[in-house]
């Protein structure tokens, strides 16, 4: 209640500031239509927080333009316009500002890349997360069977004799693409038809083992009665996971702070600072060499690049020596990493491009998942009823075991808690695009881009329209959701489909949508489900007494301003110590549980 009152007070203050002329708001858009109004406001207001965009959305609707000197941004909060940009006419939009900001760290990696480089790299990387099957199934059952046959003729994959099985499953349970596909239907398909079970199982044990290390840390804090800062612990947990998953490197950041771990954080912070900086000081030639901050960033980048080069060399040797044949079910048990898969698949790519891709996945899969866990625990701390329901489910499904692949389908409520946390705190809160071709969005004619290289950064007039699709606005819109600000996992029925952009008509976009949708969605869903399940079954979490109020600040993802300080206590019931894998095999072979 207090929060709601504060929120109302804040909104009233903002309206007063707009009324007093501090923000100049123009309503003379390209037409007089209320849906195409123009807003002009001081850009610095939106730099550190996207909340003003929400206030403006409530006033000006699903599409409006902000102008600041020569710069202008079109803010989109309308599901059908978002669908048009992300899916229906995705070819007419690039990553724009994002590619410029992330160039120093991701180069031509999958997130910033556009055009042919993106197409080639996406085709190479998606199978490494064992998802190509999804796309092929989609082609096969819905759209272009001939294309699949073409692929199988090329000897890439043989799908022909699997068609019947797919159709059978389709009759039993209608398939919807992407998330649904993964959790409700594809999982079945993958287990029974394509036997990718090995990879998913390997990832789930990785998530379990890393979370168990975090549990041990929390055990110590709980016994000593010390409060813990959960945001940084989640960041370390997900760094350890993604390092192993992407290039089989153990950062061990939950216990180790020096060297490479510090370098990764230096680079991450720099990427976030650049994304909210009004002037690109890092582009000034002399500044690059004299600024201590930039010198530190360059040293950190060099250390990471050297480490990556070394890991690539080690992995190449492993691949050369191994006798395993590359095929649909390929996975090296010792090293199921994405890097290993890419090298084994004969991915013909320069080492710079490979490094860019690895770096991209390291960053994409690290801060996002950490932020999801942070905000999930924050939300849970305010809803004890949700926590008890969650704990009941976890106790009954997992007992004292490590989670397995089969549990992923059974932990439905845990999954709904994550779905709802992603609705309230989407990571990232804003998707960025720039127009390449002429188009029309709502009542706004969109101009094409006349230059397509990094010079766009300096040529405001020759580049296309910069667009922010606000996931925050879409996910919290009072026009699209009942009780939009309320954390209510029950809004997603347990027997309904897993919510995704398709079945929610683009009002819910936690993993984006269209061809540039996140490739790590299944990975991240399982990762966060495993972490939440293992933590809540073992501990109770409360905001620590005297902890600073939890407020938001934004970079690429939503952070807390001063951390999430929590008091962790051991749960009394049931007595929980996860069974080690060897013990589990022994006890299950005896038909008993520990
Ligand atoms: C793209 C969210 C985890 C790799 C995206 C996009 C979103 C997103 C919204 C679309 C960006 C856009 O359209 O501009 C998330 C969230 C995650 C998560 C919320 C965790 C809960 C991961 C993980 C990986 C990953 C674990 C890697 C293993 C990528 C890549 C792209 C992407 C490579 C770019 C895809 C492309 O442009 O083709 N992610 N992501 N993400 N994500 Fe994730």
Features:
6-stranded mixed beta sheet, binds protoporphyrin IX containing FE, alpha+beta, 3-stranded antiparallel beta sheet, disordered C terminus, 24 helices, single chain, 594 residues
What would your notes on this structure say?
The chain has helices at 2-19, 43-47, 51-60, 79-88, 97-106, 115-125, 132-141, 145-153, 163-172, 179-194, 197-224, 230-247, 260-276, 285-290, 292-321, 338-344, 351-364, 367-381, 384-398, 405-410, 412-424, 471-476, 521-538, 581-589; strands spanning 38-40, 63-68, 71-76, 93-94, 228-229, 430-435, 439-441, 444-446, 466-470, 539-543, 552-554, 558-560, 565-570. The protein has 594 residues and is α+β, with helices and mostly antiparallel strands. Strand 11 and strand 12 (558-560) form a beta hairpin. Helix 7 packs across helix 8, helix 11 (197-224) packs antiparallel against helix 12 and helix 18 runs parallel beside helix 23. The model is unreliable at 21-45, 132-195 and 584-594 (pLDDT under 50). Bound molecules: protoporphyrin IX containing FE. The site of protoporphyrin IX containing FE has 21 residues, from helix 17, helix 18 and helix 23.
Distance from first to last alpha carbon = 44 Å
Please tell me how large the radius of gyration is: 24 Å
Q: Major β-sheet, in short?
A: 6 strands, mixed
Structural class: alpha+beta
Instruction: Supply the number of helical segments.
Output: 24
Unreliable residue runs? 21-45, 132-195, 584-594
Number of strands: 13
Report the average pLDDT across residues.
78
Name the ligand types: protoporphyrin IX containing FE
Report strand %: 5-15%
Q: Globular, elongated, flat, extended or rod-shaped: what is the shape?
A: globular
Q: What is the helix content?
A: 40-55%
Strand order of the largest sheet: 1-2-3-9-6-4
């Amino acid at each position: 209640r207090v929060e709601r009152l504060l929120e109302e007070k804040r909104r009233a203050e903002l309206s007063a500031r707009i009324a007093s002329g501090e923000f100049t708001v123009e309503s003379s858009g390209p037409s007089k239509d209320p849906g195409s109004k123009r807003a002009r406001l001081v850009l610095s207001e939106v730099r550190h927080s996207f909340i003003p965009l929400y206030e403006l959305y409530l006033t000006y609707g699903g599409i409006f333009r902000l102008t600041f000197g020569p710069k202008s941004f079109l803010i989109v909060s309308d599901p059908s316009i978002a669908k048009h940009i992300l899916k229906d006419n995705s070819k007419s939009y690039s990553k724009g500002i994002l590619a410029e900001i992330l160039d120093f760290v991701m180069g031509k990696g999958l997130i910033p890349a556009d055009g042919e480089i993106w197409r080639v790299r996406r085709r190479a990387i998606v199978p490494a997360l064992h998802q190509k099957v999804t796309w092929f199934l989609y082609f096969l059952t819905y759209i272009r069977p001939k294309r699949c046959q073409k692929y199988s003729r090329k000897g890439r994959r043989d799908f022909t004799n699997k068609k019947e099985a797919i159709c059978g499953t389709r009759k039993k349970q209608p398939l919807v693409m992407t998330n649904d596909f993964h959790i409700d239907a594809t999982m079945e398909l993958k287990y029974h038809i394509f036997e990718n079970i090995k990879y998913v199982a390997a990832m789930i044990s990785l998530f379990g083992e890393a979370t168990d290390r975090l549990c041990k840390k929390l055990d110590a804090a709980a016994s000593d009665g010390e409060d813990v800062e959960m945001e940084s612990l989640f960041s370390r947990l997900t760094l350890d996971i993604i390092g192993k998953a992407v290039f089989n490197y153990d950062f061990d950041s939950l216990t180790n702070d020096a060297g490479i771990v510090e370098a990764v954080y230096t680079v991450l912070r720099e990427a976030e600072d650049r994304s909210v900086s009004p002037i690109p000081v890092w582009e000034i030639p002399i500044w690059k060499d004299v600024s201590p901050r930039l010198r530190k960033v360059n040293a950190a980048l060099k250390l990471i690049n050297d480490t990556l080069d070394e890991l690539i060399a080690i992995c190449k040797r492993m691949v050369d020596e191994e006798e395993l044949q590359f095929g649909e079910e390929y996975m090296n048990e010792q090293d199921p990493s994405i890097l290993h898969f890419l090298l084994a698949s004969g991915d013909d790519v320069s080492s710079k491009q490979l490094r860019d891709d690895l770096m991209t996945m390291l960053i994409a899969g690290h801060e996002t998942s950490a932020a999801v866990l942070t905000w999930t625990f924050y939300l849970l701390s305010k809803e004890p009823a949700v926590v008890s329901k969650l704990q009941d489910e976890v106790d009954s499904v997992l007992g004292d075991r490590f989670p397995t692949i089969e549990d992923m389908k059974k932990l439905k409520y845990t999954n709904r808690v994550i779905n709802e946390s992603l609705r309230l705190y989407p990571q990232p809160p804003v998707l960025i695009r720039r127009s390449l071709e002429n188009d029309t969005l709502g009542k706004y004619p969109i101009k094409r881009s006349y230059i397509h290289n990094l010079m766009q950064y300096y040529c405001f007039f020759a580049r296309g329209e910069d667009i922010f699709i606000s996931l925050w606005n879409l996910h919290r819109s009072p026009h699209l959701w009942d009780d939009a600000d309320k954390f209510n996992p029950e809004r997603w029925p347990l027997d309904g489909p897993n919510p995704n952009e398709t079945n929610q008509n683009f009002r819910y976009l936690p993993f984006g949508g269209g061809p540039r949708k996140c490739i790590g969605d299944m990975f991240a869903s399982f990762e966060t489900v495993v972490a939440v399940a293992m933590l809540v079954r073992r501990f109770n979490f409360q905001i620590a007494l005297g902890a600073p109020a939890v407020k938001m600040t934004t970079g690429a993802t939503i952070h807390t301003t001063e951390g999430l300080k929590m008091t962790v206590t051991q749960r009394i019931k049931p007595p929980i110590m996860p069974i080690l894998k060897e013990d589990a095999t022994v006890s299950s072979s005896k038909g008993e549980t520990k």
